[in-house]
Design brief:
With 253 residues, the chain is mostly beta strands. The chain folds into two domains: 91 residues, Sandwich (Immunoglobulin-like), CATH 2.60.40; 135 residues, no CATH class. Helix content is 2%, strand content 48%. Strands 9, 10, 11, 13, 14, 15, 16, 17 and 19 form a nine-stranded antiparallel sheet that branches. Strands 2-8-7-4-5 form a five-stranded mixed sheet, with no helix packed on it. A three-stranded antiparallel sheet has the order 1-3-6, with no helix packed on it. The longest helix is centred in the middle third of the chain and has 4 residues. The termini are far apart.
Length: 253
Amino acid sequence: MTITTEKESYAAGESIEITGVAQSKITDFIVTVRIFNPVNNLITIDELEVNNDGTFSGEISTSIGGLWQKDGTYTIIANYYATQPATTQFEYGGMISAGVKDEVKDKIPEFSTIENNENLESIMLSDYKVDYELTGAKIIRITPDIEMKSLIIEIETYSDGELRVTFPKDVIDTDEEGFFILVDGVETVHDAIPNSENWSFVIPFSYGSEEIEIVGTYVIPEFGTVAVLILIVAVGTIIMISAKNKQIFYPKI
């Protein structure tokens, strides 16, 4: 038996195309395919039907982050009846080609579809509530750029990941030209899904990314050029010192 992949390397989120040939078709038996990541952890198992001529093929879905978060060499091992297992390898990770697949749109046609997700978080921009889901990173700061009509989201990453966020159209909007999404200054593949009041974005990023910029044709002017939102990770005692009289004030608890 032999097995191979359509390409030698795949981008994060890109499906893996598998083809192979068994010695012959054996009734009621299928090919079992197991895929191991670069540290030899089993991440998926699939079963493929064998055609009458002994060939088989299939498509393995992947994800950005999750079980597929490690970049490197992945190994496929295929078993069929009593034949010798077949093995092949491929490189996986990064944003080297396809990026996020269109199927993402089916998962969140609008942000309300994930409001009950336990990983959903909320922050406030001015008087607006912003819901988001983030994997592989944490948000440090969101800053509007009035001149560029954009929102700049600073992040700290610990793996490849994905930001799913919904902004009210009163915060940022666009005309028929659509949005530009930049990750560290480079335009990236993304999804922008509108409803009557909001824009929902699905934005992938790679490990080491520091800044996501969403560029539209309008950004809320009330933010001003220096207003920022800072998410405090550690909770500590806040001490305010008066510059006039040097008194120290402790906030009430």
